[in-house]
Amino acid sequence: MSMLSMTSCNDWLDINTNPDSPTDVSVQYQQRLAHIQFYTNDANQFAAWRSSMAMGDWTRNTAGGTYANMSDWAPAEGIVTTPYQWFFVGANVNNQDMYDKAMAAGNYQYAGAAKLLRAYGFMLMTDLYGEMPYTQACGPNATPEYDTGKTIFMGCISDIDEAIELLEKGQSQATNIPTLAVGDSWNGGDLNKRIKLAYLLKARWLNHLVKKGAGSYKDGKYDATEILACLDKAMQSNADNTIVNHTDANSSSHDVLGWDEPVDYSPLYSVCGMNSGYMPTKMLYDNLTNFAGCGIEDPRADHILPWAMSGKSATTPAEIKWNGNWRRSMGVDLQSAIRTSGGPIRAIYNKNEGRWYCKDAAADRLGDTIYVESTSSSKGYAANVDLLYRNVKGVDGSAESGSFYSRVSSPTYIGTYAEACFIRAEVLFNQGNKAGAYEAYAKGVRASIELMNSKLKTWVSEDQSLEKCPSFTPMAQADIDNYVQNGIGTAGDLTLGKILTQKRIALLFSMEIWNDMRRYDFNPEYFLGWNIPAAYYKSTAAQKAIPLGKQFRRWCQCSHEYKYNSKNLQAIGAQVPGATLVDSKGNEVTWNRADDVWTINVWWDSDQQ
Q1: Helix, strand, coil % over all residues of the chain, rounded to 5
Q2: Which residues, 6+ apart, have CB-to-CB distance to 23 below 8 Å?
Q3: What is the dihedral of CA 267, 5, 414, 15, to 10 degrees?
Q4: Which listed site, 41, 273, 415, 603, has its alpha carbon 20 to 30 Å from 324?
Q5: Long-range contacts of 558-562 (CB under 8 A, 24+ apart)
């Protein structure tokens, strides 16, 4: 497997702060690639983390504010701005220039990369907000008109088709034309991997159209034949994956949009891993430890569920897993009353007594020590001794492991063979081909586990002391084989729920989790262990945003749009089914500012043609 570190583009980001750097007019198009990739990926990761909080795999401690409320289905405007800013201001503003200059130079690789990134970013925008300026975006008009979700979606598919056509032309033989390797932090200039990614993304997005009826994708219909054809040209093994393998180098190059953080570390570390209070849920715990009641623990469980250094006591619950002095987290039950009775609360380590405790008088909160936060640390950025977080600085007995996906050097999976397998499994299953679906499904599970294991081996090779922590210990091949053979069911009992639930484990912290749940209308039969959180039914704010009987379907627009482009935002409302344009008295209302705007289906999630 080939991975390229973000450190390859550290010098590149300096063009935004270095007074000796080129101007916008003279900057070379190849210099823009890493910039666009960095901000587009971060926009996706920030959105995926926030949406995942609402889809039931993670929650936060009771004092966790906006993001804790997401896990109660009580969304607020505070979640909606950052992905918008990072895509439009950090990425897309550079994209058209890279495309135009690359086309003028006959460099079809860079032009194809530009089209692929444009599609990747705008598909995120329509996934989140539905309607958005697209045709006129980043043009000379400071208040661009809005496009419908269908226009954006179909435009992104067209962009993908053009990207594939351009990329398949190959590298120019002219000696003065730069190769794609310059600044390419996703594929290291590997043109074949980028083409495979393009086909995967096309298959991913066409698969969103399950509600549109069968037909040609060019007509906005669900095109199973085209999806499978794309998968035949997408990743065929983990060696074909597009992965950004972030580092803990604490580079001197930082983002320029106000966070001022190093460009080399994982965006999920920025928003989740370095922060306190994030805990796995019972749904995630159950799916990892007893998937579909199969009775065999997933070998990924030890690496996704956080661990804490601890000691047993007479009251320690028997169901907690131990490995030496390490204790694994249990899952917060969002179907219980815990989020409405003051919990979960954060555990604190008492260094004088050498134990964890919860500083709360309520007896039913004292047991919240069973939940371990996903907080981790770093050697480069935080100047710590290793990747483990110490609840009490310098006290090893207070160490916490963090979670696989949210560490400083965790990989970002842009597109993987595992995802390709799960999409194929879903399509074949829905066609009635259970044998073919199961083969793809089992390959997807194995690919996900082996991909995780490769990173675990890298971590312990970089710091051998980490292998003592069960969160980092590589998985044994016998355990992997046993799980794939006996822990995921058989071809005879395969269900769409098993396929989609294994897919979400493989794509944890991905927008595709929310996209899948919307596509299948949040059906608990398809998302094992999920249901609307119990706290939702006790929250006036939650039911105001998502009224009873409705579901979490989109984000509202951020303030930049309703403050500075309100006329065009209001105008598109006439083409949005479900938008309220006038009140009961006939007075015009700002449709995107309605309390329940979160429940309006985006175009691909509807039966609108």
Answers
A1: 50, 5, 45
A2: none
A3: 70
A4: 273
A5: 558/77, 558/80, 558/81, 558/84, 558/85, 559/77, 559/81, 560/81, 560/84, 560/85, 561/84, 561/592, 562/590, 562/592, 562/593
d(CA 152, CA 34): 24
At residue 17 the predicted structure's pLDDT band, cuts being 50, 70 and 90, is: very low
Residue 281 in 3-state DSSP? strand
Mean pLDDT of 502-518: 97
Mapped onto helix, strand or coil, the DSSP state of residue 74 is coil
Crossing angle for the helix pair 191-206 and 417-430, to the nearest 10 degrees: 30
Question: What is the maximum span of the chain, computed from C-alpha positions, in angstroms?
Answer: 74
Token look-up 């990892």 returns 288
How far apart (Å, rounded) are the C-alpha atoms in residues 164 and 198? Answer: 7
* Rounded Cα distance, 120 and 122, in Å: 6
* Rounded CA separation 94/86 (Å): 12
Quote the tokens at residue 205.
């997005």
Which is more confident, 26 or 555? 555
Counting beta carbons within 10 angstroms of the beta carbon of residue 476, is it exposed (0 to 12), middle (13 to 18) or buried (19 or more)? exposed
CA dihedral angle for residue 39, residue 41, residue 42, residue 47, rounded to 10 degrees = 130
Residue 307 neighbours by CB under 8 Å, 6+ apart: 323, 326, 327, 328, 329, 372, 400, 401, 469, 470, 471
- Tokens 């016998």 correspond to 478
**Sign of torsion, CA 43 75 66 514?**
negative
**413 membership: H or E segment, kind and range:** strand 411-415
pTM beyond 0.85: the answer is yes
CB–CB of 110/33 below 8 Å? Answer: yes
Amino acid type, 411:
P
- pLDDT tens by residue, 365-398: 889 999 999 999 999 999 999 999 999 999 999 9
What residue spans of 309-433 are helical by DSSP H?
Answer: 417-430
- Residue 483: CB partners within 8 Å, gap ≥ 6? 296, 297, 298, 299, 445, 449
Burial 557-568 (b: 16+ CB within 10 A, else e): bbeebbeebeeb
Mind listing the pLDDT tens digit for each residue in 266-309? 999 999 999 988 999 999 999 999 999 999 999 999 999 999 99
- Report how far residue 548's alpha carbon sits from residue 325's, in angstroms, rounded to the nearest whole number: 45
**Contacts (Cβ under 8 Å, ≥6 apart) of 294:** 486, 487, 488, 489
3-class SS letters over 181-201:
CCCCCCCCCCHHHHHHHHHHH
Q: Decide: helix, strand or coil at residue 415.
A: strand
3-class DSSP assignment, residue 541: helix
Spatial neighbors of 164 by CB under 8 A, at least 6 apart, are: 112, 195, 198, 199, 202
Question: Across the strands, what pairs with 280?
Answer: 58
Q: Where are the alpha helices (DSSP H) in 520-605?
A: 540-545, 559-564, 566-572
Q: What angle do CA 333, 336, 341 make, to 5 degrees?
A: 110
